[in-house]
Predict the 3D structure of the following.
Amino acid sequence: MLGAGVAVIAAVVAAILLLVTDRRAEASPLTPVRAGAEATLGPINGVLAYPVRWVGHVSDWIGGYFFAVSENRKLKAEIAELQAVRDANIALTNVNRRYEALLGIRTQPPVPMASARSISDARGPFANARLIDVGSRQGVKIGNPVINEHGLVGRVAGTSPNVSRVVLLTDAASQVPVLIDRSDARAILSGDGSGNPRLEYVRGEDALKVGDRVLSSGDGGGMPRGMPVGVVARGVDGSWRVKLFSDRGAIDYVRVLKFEDFGQLVAPEALNAPPLAALDTNPAARPPEPATPPPAAAQPADQPARGATE
Amino acid sequence: MRRAAVTVRTGGAMQWIGWPALAAAAGTLILATPVELFGLQLPEPILPLLLAFAWPLIRPSLMAPAVLFALGLLLDVMLYAPLGLWPLCLLAPYGVVLVSRSFLAGQETRVLFFWFSLTSAAAFLLAYLIVTLTGGRPPSLLALLGQVVPTLLLFPLSNALIQRFDDVDVRYR
């Protein structure tokens, strides 16, 4: 009994020392230990989870079989609605392209992406995070935004050569700058372990209404502007919360945007171009252009796509 | 007349510590699978809490705290918690039950469930406080309930382990 008591006390002291030393995503001497453990556990989890995935596919098949009629009806209604949106989108894209050419706006070129499969999931009140099967070998870096087919999922918080840790928007440590599409108001989307993160530090009068669309604002340069996040809702505690688009389906396949900051998107010389250059209608008076590499050359080459969503 | 030596069945440590610990680790890995069954995510109970309650009641051991520590580290990596959080939150109920085992051992199931609920709640409260202190923001209480309830519902597994092994080694009666 005495020996067991001593063992408990020794183990408690060791646990407290670990707790004081480790700070998850921040620089910590234990970060390589965690990365190594995640790199080992990821494939093991993939093997153990195989039967569970199989049962999941069966449940999807059964759901698809029994709800095919209602699904078909819903899809037809959606197509009818989207046809009008598509026509408007074509017209708006055309007009927008002309405006951009007239104003000489430097638009963001496409961001390279890496597709990945989610291999492990941490839920619960204390952490909401996932392991995905791409890592630094595929060009993934800490801070890269992660999306699925519905919207923003989270950000990469740790990488090893073939496995990365993604902290979801619902994690208690997650804070993402967002904007409200209707009012252009800014806010911070803060996770708290529940399914619907809070909207904090909302600025502007009449900034929020239930049903407003929430997009990433890109403030701070951490992620591109305009990525769909969710819609505004009221929580049971009366606080403003967001129903995430990414929850509309299982987060099994995701894409990592290899986005670091706005500086990576253009060549440095292009930033020095005179404003409204496109309005200069006298080519003879224009100084010779510096030999700038094409924007694609300034970006890292995209990695070969993995997974099935490419 | 010489009496025959009494054979004491002690039940090897692998039987009551090793296999249950491996089962808890495998269960944690499987429940971390990111699949949805009929639109619902898998529950995520803290399986090693069942062992942290059962092991000190079966018998005091040097190996059990070490294995609990290892299981806690596995939970920290799987659940992306600060390293040391779950070892601490597993060893706290283990220590409490170890100290009170003289009057808990042999009690009926309802009493054991009450104590299991109490020690588990204390462990979750400790985790909640640590995460709040380190993160600066309290996690959602509803989400906390979503993890506490599945853990409590699995008490029959802990009770089965106690019933299976508490009388195996007569020296600890």
